[in-house]
Amino acid sequence: MKKNIFALVLTFLLAGLWAGSALAQGKTPTDDDVNAVASQLFCPVCENTPLDVCPTAACKQWRELIRLKLSEGWSETQIKEYFVAQYGARVLAEPPRQGFSWLVYIVPPILLAIGAYLVFTTLRSMRKPTPDVAQVSVGLETTVDDDDLRRVEEELKRLQ
Amino acid sequence: MTETSQPVRKGVPIWIQVIVWAALAVLMVIVALGLKRSQQGTVAPGDKIPDFTLTFFDGYTYQNQPQVNLSDLRGKVVILNFWASWCKPCEEEAALLEAAWKSYEADGKVIFIGADYVDTEPEARGYLAKFGITYPNGPDLGTKISQFFRIKGVPETYFIDANGVLQYVQIGPFSSEAQIRQIIDTILAQ
């Protein structure tokens, strides 16, 4: 009896697994599924046009290709890799993090950091005089001795 | 008696200035190279064409091989045609190219090669079947070949002589088979 129950459970489990895989393979990708992948790719022919909004016949073909690959069970990554192999890395909306493309990720933050530093130092120097300037002005005051002061006072009296 | 001490300028450290200027210089060089490349146009007649490999679609071969290197074709005039199934002007010349290929095929001095530019394979195969194209054809994988030739669109056809030197560039479709034959015959006569 126990053996029969075990066989029955096993049969149900296997049937469930089979049905699941059949459903996954047979599932027709929706336009949203296709566009989710297409939005990460650019039209290889048109200039700067994302594949999901590109109106040309060629782009329609590529979207159908994405639909086909999705229905075959391909993952998003696999489809993107396929597009790169077929049409080059320029089809990727986000440049790959390798080789020369690293510059796209490295240069802007560096320039931003340098810019922020420059703004900070400029603002700081505008807010208060540097100690060196103060020192120079102090130095000028100490050079006026008593004789000079007396002479200036005499000159002022004469003018009055 | 006045004190003449030089005011010490406190600004951006010199090493940061050097980095900023160097980064700007590099950026400008990259932009300049990009602009130069975008304005360059296709490769010009007289240019030596470096080697490239084209892997054919299933069912197409050259000397029973599924791919061809340009260097294997030294001694022959090579007609390299860039096309795509989504390209309407390509359809205008497809039959003309096939007819021209048929007239030179037996002689063995001329080889036609089709490079399918950013296309989808089922549609490309449909196009080849529709126009009965028999000369070797394959996808330009990764657009490597078209990038070297700096093509601006399709169709474009490049005539390479027996020494691997580009002799003629046809931008846009051919108007007649006679036009294709005239260009080839001129190169063969050289």
Give a structural overview.
The complex is a heterodimer of chains A (160) and B (190). Chain A has 160 residues and is mainly α. Chain A folds into 3 domains: 28-94, Cytochrome C biogenesis protein (Helicase, Ruva Protein, domain 3); 100-128; 132-160, no CATH class. Chain A has 7 helices and no strands. By secondary structure, chain B is of the alpha/beta class. Chain B has 2 domains: 12-41; 53-189, Glutaredoxin (3-Layer(aba) Sandwich). Chain B contains 5 helices and 7 strands. Chain B has helices at residues 14-38, 88-105, 121-130, 144-149, 177-189, and strands at residues 53-55, 67-69, 77-83, 110-116, 137-139, 156-160, 166-171. In chain B, the strands form 2 sheets. Chain B has a 5-stranded mixed β-sheet with strand order 5-4-3-6-7, covered by helices on one side. Chain B has a two-stranded antiparallel sheet with strand order 1-2. In chain B, helix 2 (88-105) crosses helix 5. Chain B is elongated and about 80 Å long. The chains are: A mainly alpha (160), B alpha/beta (190). Chains A and B meet through helix 3, helix 4, helix 5 and helix 6 of A and helix 1 of B.
Keywords:
heterodimer, A: 160 residues, mainly alpha, Helicase, Ruva Protein, domain 3, 3 domains, 0% strand, rod-shaped, B: 190 residues, alpha/beta, Glutaredoxin, 2 domains, two-stranded antiparallel sheet, 5 helices, elongated
Topology:
The complex is a heterodimer of chains A (about 160) and B (about 190).
Chain A: H1 2-26, H2 31-38, H3 57-71, H4 76-87, H5 102-127, H6 131-142, H7 146-159
Chain B: H1 14-38, E1 53-55, E2 67-69, E3 77-83, H2 88-105, E4 110-116, H3 121-130, E5 137-139, H4 144-149, E6 156-160, E7 166-171, H5 177-189
Parallel strand pairs in B: 3-4, 4-5
Antiparallel strand pairs in B: 1-2, 3-6, 6-7
Put simply, the count of helices of chain A is 7
Number of strands of chain B: 7
Number of strands of chain A: 0
Taken together, the total number of domains of chain B comes to: 2
List the helices and strands of chain A in order: HHHHHHH
The CATH homologous superfamily name of the largest domain in chain B equals Glutaredoxin
CATH-assigned fold name of the largest domain in chain B: Glutaredoxin
